[in-house]
Specification:
Elements: H1 2-33, H2 40-55, H3 62-72, H4 74-98, H5 104-133, H6 138-151, H7 153-172, H8 177-214, H9 220-225
Helix pairs in contact: 1-2, 1-3, 1-8, 2-3, 2-4, 2-5, 2-8, 4-5, 5-6, 5-7, 5-8, 7-8
Length: 228
Amino acid sequence: MASGGFGFRAYTLFDTLLWIACLNVLWFVFTLLGGVVLGAGPSTVAAHVLVRDKVRGNATPLLGRFAKEYFTNFGKGNALGLPLLAVGVALALNWGYFSAGWDLGSQIASAGILLAALFVAGTLCYLFPMFARYELSLVQYFLMSSRFAMRHLAGTVILLFVTAAALFVCRSIPGLIPFFGVGAWLYVTGWLCDRFFTANDDAMAGMEAAGTAAGKPTPALAKEASLV
């Protein structure tokens, strides 16, 4: 039984690694298909939809489902991704300018830019998994993901640590990028966000039940999004 259990766990591990590698390849292929700038957002949307299905045990054909979600959400994916890309470029340019200065004003500005970059990165970690899970307007995705990042700091710190670790590994071992670089980050952050959102939804359900018992209904926006 012990060896059977070990064999099953080993099979599950290698199956997941192969799945991540295939997801990684699809993300790169479809990102290039959109000319990189217009392909990254829809590819990330499609990837997180598949990650959500995977972590919930809903196996679907990777290529067909990825292509469907990519083309179906091409506009929305770019509406989510392009603003973040523009903000990221602006932050990088300003960081490069102010970090080169040694005066107090430049150092304060660079510190502020670093904090803003961490906030944007935290919002990014939640944004696409939130799109894969909830039905909201495009504006609400940005508002609710940034709000979630601020209110659930422990989860945000974990996601930022995972992101930093992924960047460090990819920088140290560039050969991993074509196989696991993006796919592993998408899978781990999607898996974590699914847990965070589920815990939050359970908490919201408890609050709604308590509020109903006390005659105090849950506010409309929080009830609609199942987020606090």
